[in-house]
Amino acid sequence: MLRLLLDEQMDPAVVAQMRDQHPNIPIDSLHTWEDRRYLRTNDAAILAEACRQSLTLVTYDTRTIVPLLKAWGESGTPHGGVIFVKSTTIAQDNIGGLMRALVQLWEQYGDDDWTNVTTFLTGCAPLFRARHSAGGSMIPAARDDRPLACADGACDPRMPPTRDATGP
To answer: Strands, E, within the chain: which ranges?
Structure first.
């Protein structure tokens, strides 16, 4: 099941509003999670504890997280999943846009196992989901037959969301 943990660069108001408007979606923020113990902590410690708690990290930080995930994949170290957000697609101050995209992602993939899964979130749904295999390579998931929900037309229909090859 998808349980979201927002990275520290994300506004904690997203969590408050999500909990108010979508109480069925499990979400937390590094600003409050574990009594703020992981705020300003290194990424490896955050990802390790998030994995232990079956949380998927939502972050704008590709600069440090991507190399860490590559190293973890090569060593066989698991993670609880990472959802990358590009600031060119959803600005960091666009709380409503981020909420809509996360809600749509959760509605489509909320019941899936997110262990070792990464995706890039767009304005409506993920463009690509992949599971990391032993040795660090990424395995594209099987094509998903569910329709792509795009309220704003920002999604590229040539890149439908995908589902893990191990999924139903």
So the answer is: 4-6, 27-29, 56-59, 82-85, 117-121, 126-132, 138-140, 142-143, 162-163
Give the position of tokens 């090859």.
165
Distance in angstroms (rounded) separating the CA atoms of residues 130 and 116: 8
Compute the distance between CA of residue 56 and CA of residue 150 in angstroms, rounded to an integer: 23
Establish how many alpha carbons lie within 13 A of residue 122's alpha carbon, considering only the half-sphere containing its beta carbon. Answer: 19
At position 113, the amino acid (one-letter code) is D
Is pTM beyond 0.85? Reply is no
**Please, is 154 exposed, middle or buried when counting C-beta atoms within 10 Å of its C-beta (0-12, 13-18, 19+)?**
middle
pLDDT by residue, tens only, the chain of 168 residues: 999 999 999 999 999 999 999 999 999 999 999 999 999 889 999 999 999 999 999 999 999 999 999 999 999 999 999 999 998 889 999 999 999 999 999 999 999 999 999 998 876 545 445 555 555 544 444 434 333 333 333 333 333 333 333 333
